[in-house]
Each structure stands twice: as structure tokens, then as C-alpha cells.
């Protein structure tokens, strides 16, 4: 079975770990880039969710590589959730779910 892996900062890593997700903690974008390169080559990885601030700084070449991968799917995730924009958040997640599974799935509030 493939795993969900999260690459995030130390502050967010505890919550993901408590939820049972494999967490790769990065203190900087450079560390996140290294963790992503390792995770991409891990045969157990199915989905790699990465802090969007780190994803923005990994470089165009690595971003392009992640878009061409069949597996694992690499998704940038919001680093901060603004509850006033929850509707936008649902649209954001729906777009990535569509990419991952091939259909448009709508999330209910």
C-alpha cells in the first residue's frame, strides 16, 4: 500500500504526525528540497503533500519533474488556513483531487 507523506515545517509536523501521516520535517526550503528528492524515490510514496511556501522555492526543474511523475503525486498544500476563505480552500483541494484520481470531486461543507 502506498503512503501519504507530508513535507512541512516543525510547527505543523506534530499535528500531521498525530494524525498518523509520515512526516518529513524541513526547517528551510533547502531541507524541503532534499526531503522531496528522497521521498520521490521512495517506492512506498503514493502522495507527497508539501508546504506550499517550500514548494514555491524548490526550483522550476524539480517542480516540472513532479508534474511529470505518475507516482508519487506531489501536491503543494496551504501553509496557513484562512477560515474566511474556506470555500476557496475547497476549490483548491478539489483541483488537486481531480489531478490525483482523474475526476472532479466536490467537497461538502
Describe the protein.
With 109 residues, this protein is of the alpha/beta class. Helix content is 46%, strand content 20%. The chain has helices at 10-18, 29-40, 52-55, 60-68, 86-101, and strands at residues 3-8, 22-25, 45-51, 73-77. A 4-stranded parallel sheet has the order 2-1-3-4, with helices on both faces. The longest helix is centred in the C-terminal third of the chain and has 16 residues, at 86-101. The termini are far apart.
Which keywords apply here?
4 strands; 109 residues; alpha/beta; Rossmann fold; 2 domains; globular; 5 helices; single chain
Instruction: Specify the CATH homologous superfamily of the largest domain.
Output: ATPase, V1 complex, subunit F
**Termini gap:** 29 Å
Low confidence ranges? 82-86
Morphology: globular
Order of strands across the main sheet = 2-1-3-4
Supply Rg: 14 Å
* Strand percent estimate: 15-25%
